[in-house]
Design goal:
By secondary structure, the protein is an all-alpha fold. The protein has one domain (2-192). The chain has helices at 2-31, 36-57, 67-88, 94-101, 104-116, 122-140, 149-171, 177-192. Helix 2 crosses helix 8 (177-192). The longest helix is centred in the first third of the chain and has 30 residues, at 2-31. The chain is globular and about 50 Å long.
């Protein structure tokens, strides 16, 4: 039984990684013809509708006491991050954006220190700084990927995303992670469908 759970986790993790990797190129393609905020609202609304169905079918109780935190998570992960990413994709190549998104793990770790009181080891920080430095060095190699205005927007979107992930992590101590993001997109529906 445990092996089946592990295999399912690996399969779902692989699918999620592929979908996340396709996010920037697909967003860039979408914003070439559509308004970035429309693209943000459409993707969030679709996810929200699916989440509502899942939450209703599984009879998950509404987490009334957690609604303020879920609203903050929604503002970060459902509206802020994808909205700013969509705006940036109008001016930044998706490959370049992907390099900047490579900073997301270290930004999330920093946010987790402040939001969740996490205390990563010095080795973790050393490796994170090394990884972040490699991402920056790669993006600046040979002057081929000089910073542009869209980079600042992407950096802000990464900061917002890392903060949203950290707040999600604190809430996932009390409810499953899938439920946290499901409630976040579900409660976003009134804003997204406007």
């Amino acid at each position: 039984m445990r092996t089946n759970h592990l295999a399912l986790g690996l399969v779902l993790g692989t699918i999620a990684t592929i979908l996340f990797a396709a996010s920037l190129p697909m967003t860039r393609l979408a914003v070439s013809a559509l308004d970035p905020w429309f693209v943000t609202a459409a993707r969030g609304a679709l996810a929200g509708l699916v989440a509502v169905v899942v939450l209703v079918v599984l009879r998950r109780p509404i987490p009334w006491g957690d609604l303020p935190r879920l609203a903050l998570i929604a503002a970060c992960l459902v509206i802020g991050f994808p909205g700013l990413m969509a705006i940036a994709m109008r001016t930044v190549p998706s490959a370049h954006g992907g390099v900047i998104l490579g900073l997301l793990p270290i930004v999330t770790a920093v946010a987790a220190v402040f939001v969740a009181g996490e205390k990563p080891s010095p080795f973790f920080w050393a490796m994170s700084v090394l990884g972040g430095s490699l991402v920056v060095a790669f993006s600046m190699r040979d002057g081929l990927m000089l910073p542009v205005a869209g980079d600042l927007i992407l950096f802000v979107s990464v900061a917002i995303c890392g903060t949203g992930y950290a707040f999600s992590g604190t809430l996932s101590r009390r409810m499953p992670g899938w439920e946290v993001i499901s409630w976040a997109v579900a409660i976003s529906l009134p804003v997204l469908l406007r």
